[in-house]
Amino acid sequence: xxxxxxxxxxxxxxxxxxxxxxxxxxxxxxxxxxxxxxxxxxxxxxxxxxxxxxxxxxxxxxxxxxxxxxxxxxxxxxxxxxxxxxxxxx
Length: 90
Description:
Antitoxin; 90 residues; DUF433; mainly alpha; globular; single chain; Arc Repressor Mutant, subunit A; disordered C terminus; WH-like_DNA-bd_sf; two-stranded antiparallel ribbon
């Protein structure tokens, strides 16, 4: 089983979903992407991240949107994500 790349812990950033092993939130990654930063630029600013972790953050956000809208997940989407009830209910 693959290790979850996105975790949530009430003791880290108030429970915001973060990249496992860091204090970098999914929200921060999405903010950087929404302002037009490329994956390469994000990796330059945060050299301890990997492309796979950035992709996991985007996949996590996608799953949250899908859950809230009731859309079906693609069988091709196998990114490991740890979901907690308190994250989904926000």
